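Why does residue order matter? Because the sequence determines the fold. Keep that principle in mind as you read this record.
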Amino acid sequence: MTDQTADIRRKLTTIFCADVQGYSALVERDEVGTVTRLKLYRGVMTDLIGQHHGRLINTWGDGLVAEFGSPVEAVFCAVETQRRIAARNAEDPTRSPMQFRIGINLGDVMLDGSDIYGDGVNVAARLESLADPGGICISGAVFEQVRKKLDIGFDFLGPREIKNIAEPVQAYRVLLGGGPDHAARSGHDHDAPARPGPANQDTEAAFAKWRAQAWRLGVLSLFLLVINLLTSPGALWFYWPMLGFAMFLLMRFPAGIDPRRIWPKRHDP
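Structure:
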């Protein structure tokens, strides 16, 4: 028997928590600009949550809580969120980057209206605090559901104590850059040492910058094609600057990035 009231229901769900690393310091340096960027980036995150069949629960300050029916969709959403925000940050390298930390847990929660409560939420919030700036930290329960379904790597961080939670929670860092040896690190070798720090963040930022350049040069190439066809359709010259653009992009392609990511494919859950 339990003493829970009749109007409180329970369910198993995937909890997604996010906040901004060093938000107070960013506000102190540029209050208006920081709040404007927060709204913009939160809009990006909210759109992705909807696209991945999640539900936004609440926002407060720089924080956000959402839930997903599928752990795979939750992690996929988190990865896409971090990549898009990294790309936005790379557009203006003169400003301090706004980086989110994301924690994801699969757990039992209590529903009270549209809000959720309970240990499952507390664990997700704790995992968020363990995440690197611009990174993602997931629980062992989530890892078991996604490790064979997404083409990303993981680092085992070990068991972590959670306040008011009896058993330690197994924590994993999501490796956003993947890599040839990610499959070995995504297994159950809990004695292997965890990699220090967000080793792939610089590579991700460089790739985001490269992709933005590729889009701009692609638009410019299309413009040159139209000009060529309108002014001298009998003498095609537009492909010469396009070859130059292609050589430039090839020489600037970041090391350590899988070329297949130029045309990313969605992985079905």
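Confidence is low (pLDDT under 50) at residues 179-200.
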